Request: fold
Amino acid sequence: MGYIDSLVQKVITLLKNNNIDITSSKRLRVPSGQGKTVVCISIKDEKDYILKIVDVTPEIMKEEPIEEINEEIRNQIMYMSIRTFNEIEMSKKCPNLPQLRNIGNHLFQYLIYDNSAYLYYIEEKVEGTMFRYKDTYTITEVISFLEQLIDNIRIMSENDYVHRDITPSNIMENNGKYFLIDGGIGKNIKDGLDITKTGTPIGKARYLAPEQERVTANMNWTFQTDLYPLGIIATEMFIPKTRNIPDKDIRDIQIVAKKWLEKDNSYEAQLLFKKIIANLLNEIKALRFNSITELISELEKVKKEVIK
Amino acid sequence: MIYLQHGPSWKPKTDELLNQNLIQGIIWDPREETIARINKIRKENPKYNSVTNLIDLKWFYKQFPNSLMKRLNELDYFPDTIIDRNYLRNIDELTDKIRKMINFQNSTMNVDILIAPTLYMSSFNERIVDRLFDVMDIFYEESKPILKNKYLSLIIHESAFDNAMYMKDFIDDISNYIGKYDGIYLVIDRDNTSTIRHGFSESRLTKVLKFIYSLKKMQFKVIMGYCGIESINYMAMGVDAITTGWFYSLRRFNRLEKGLEEYSTMGRAKKRYLSLNLLNELTIDENIQMIPDAQKEDLYKIILNGNSIDKKIITQSYEVIPMNDTFIQYFEVMNSLSKQFGSINEIETNIQKLESMLNNAILNTDLYNEQRKGIGSITKRHLTDYSNALKIFKEENFL
Reply:
């Protein structure tokens, strides 16, 4: 049995001690840059869940064996856990994101194992697979995608959150239903805390809103930051050729406009581009849309025209 | 809406414009008149307070060492020294002057909208721009207890619009004031190198339109200061008001003519008629009355709009037509234009309307010039400038 398997078994044992009777488990291999182990678990008399085990070992523990967790180490473990805390907190507040199941009276627990520190929690298992582009999409399919993702953004915004990391790999798909996951670098717009550092771009460069490239301490985060990546993803859906073009090209609205019309210059395609995509891709955050209501209303108008 | 850009020799003209309901607001110029007289007349004639009253603080005059301050020196919100970056670093002093400006606008003048002071910008990336944002921040904080609408003010040289990147960054910075300020009073300092009366470099106008369009998209109210006939472009962008006046210098801000730098004044103004069909101001003598009799019937149909002055133009000699009547005619037409654009909410529809008006005016100008065979011909250059600028604007903004 490998190290990770042993770790998973240890956590499952601890969960059983908390009256969570796991009847089966299967480790999932998912891309993660956070030292996260992901296990699909079945709990007796309940639905399936995802167990997430996050390595939060501070540097000091990696340097030499630790006999006792003192306050300094505890603080460092807490510091290493900030991103996960953020994700947990965002899940609690935003019902569109996968919800967490309590472990005893808490949403997460710590484990010190083999001179390493881990934080683990149980998340509801959402049906579906990670979003992957299919060969082509119709205008109606792109609109449907946008409607669903905008609704996710609306829910987060109404709960004072901005996701800040909307990329294809943070979208799940299930039979034409799309939803967001991973609020790891989400931001509560009402509190001053930010897990990211001033001046440090956060998220995947291709999908970053321009304002995320120059984050300042007094940055006024709004839902508008989450609109920009939707514009990029919708473009990549509709124009397969753009999926492999350099980042700088897909972020150039004039290049995108040209490619969009080359692909389809029908009235409907132009309408979708001019009324929605061009605004989502506006370099200036404040010019994307003034409110989600305005965006939904505009998209509804476009949809009516397209269906007509 | 049409606001009056207050200027010299104002009293009888303003009374008449108010009597005829041709203005919906007045932007007072404290450089041209004492506050005591303005307030006295506002008190005596209730019509003055039936329209929106604002005052242009003209604080930027103190940025220029040789500017002609006129009555501005009497106002306590002006410092004794030149306003430069060094002066603007003194936050206590700045706050004190801004409090005075707020008190001046709110209590002394009892205006309807408070306007933040501004600094002259010759480029969007000047170092003074950062200080301007400080000024805006202080004004916002200090004016919080006053529940009147508050507007930012900007005065920008038109060449600043040549750099689209700097302009974009500036718009981004201005977006920080959404929710803090209700609107923006924008003055563009126009180059005076063009010999075409209403001319506007199409590339610059494109950027100016983009700038206004962006402000409107951010849901700021926009008042465009010192406008002339080029304001039809701004109206199409959905600006809330344009301000204009009787003299050419009140329809076009130029730093030389406005006394920011030394300048010799121009000659006597000609009497002009603003034709809707031509979108041009025609000289009443040369361009209208000197048309040969045989052509008058056809050309008058094109030129004249049906304004109250028309009869005088047809029947009276140039010398006896009162200059003030020509000003009233100008305001009649500007009101008519403003109403046509103000009733439409969709920018696309506004642009289509303007395009149609411009095309019509170009055709009519060709017709006029053809009939006049070079004698007293009129330019259509400004019309093609506007038309080309609109075309580029539409393409760049996917409209």
User: Anything to note?
Assistant: The radius of gyration of chain A is 21 Å.
